Amino acid sequence: MSTFISLLRAHHDALMTASQTPVSPDMKRAIAAMESCQTEAAGWSQWYCRHCHHHDQSPLSCGHRLCPQCQHRTSATWLARQQAKLLPVHYFMITFTLPAELRGLARAQPKALYRIMFSVAASLLKDFAQRRHGGRSGFTAVLHTHSRRRDLHPHLHVMVPAGYYNPARRQWHKGPKRYLYPAVALAKVWRGRLLAAIHQHPQLYLPARLPAQWVVDCRPVGRGLPALKYLSRYLYRGVLPDRDIIGIDGDQVTFRYREGKTNHWQHRTLPIVRFLGLILQHALPKGLQRVRDYGLLHGSARAVRLIIQLLLMRLGWRGLPGEPATMTKASRSCPHCAQSMVCTGIIRTG
To answer: How many CB atoms lie within 10 A of CB 123?
Structure first.
């Protein structure tokens, strides 16, 4: 049982009535999902062993993207999908950060603002790629909403392979391994375009004061499969893994986090209800896609990626053309004979 979910169940009523922690509809959906996760309320999967004919049942997981019990499968699925698109190039991670002055807007209108962040970052990177080499490139953007201290801190992590494809010549051009785009130029365009898009949106507003300089980071993260494995752990980690909840004393809970500059562990202690609200504020709006692929990494570009992979194989790359990732079937071992069991159905109780 997850420590966070245990706290959520034990302090449900106090959380729902706490004035300092207003519970939004998105938070309520997350609470309902996590409290039912792997319980009878979520339903059951039915299992049968063909070897010893044993029947069994197992409670279903909720699958909510905030749930600490359901994160590992999401990360594994993303990694399998990205491996099908793997290229023998260096990868970069670009981070687009929203300044503190706009975090109130993220609380009030998260769905509209986060969609604009994706749109602006994508158009910006496509324009930078077009001006630099004129070929086709691709990238994957992932939305994070929390800082290391788990405060609200919306930002986009964008994974970019260093290289581009020239469709006219059917050529792949490998990019440099240490430099992609100038971070200062990215930050200036990010600021200008995002503010313009917010100003034009009928439901969004701009505060009176905004910083003149915004933060964009662009750094290399490695080559090929090792880079993807690192990114899958980084991009799909939960808001707060249970292993980082290190103490519960009365109505106080303590969790740990790594301080960014020193990389040393720091501790933060909060009242339990405030702690629950701190984590639940990162429940994303219903229907918002948190991970988006663009260009050569988009699902519709599979044929072009296959051409690129075949071209690279002719040049000596020993990798195999990627196959589309498929969801693996759920499996479990029989508690009596240890043979594989088959799922024979799902029982919904809700």
So the answer is: 14
Q: Which residues pair with 295 in a beta bridge?
A: 138
pLDDT in tens, 225-263: 777 777 777 666 678 989 999 999 999 999 999 998 898
Q: Which residues contact 79 (CB under 8 A, 6 or more apart)?
A: 228, 229, 232
Residue 33 lies in a domain: no
- Residues with Cβ < 8 Å from 136, sequence gap 6 or more? 164, 165, 166, 167, 295, 296, 304
In a domain, 128, yes or no: yes
User: How many domains, the chain?
Assistant: 1
The domain of 128 spans: 71-239+282-314
Tell me if the pTM is above 0.85: yes
Whose structure tokens read 């939004």? 24
Helices 3-10, 25-36: axis angle to 10 degrees equals 110
Q: DSSP string covering 98-122, please? A: --GGGHHHHHHSHHHHHHHHHHHHH
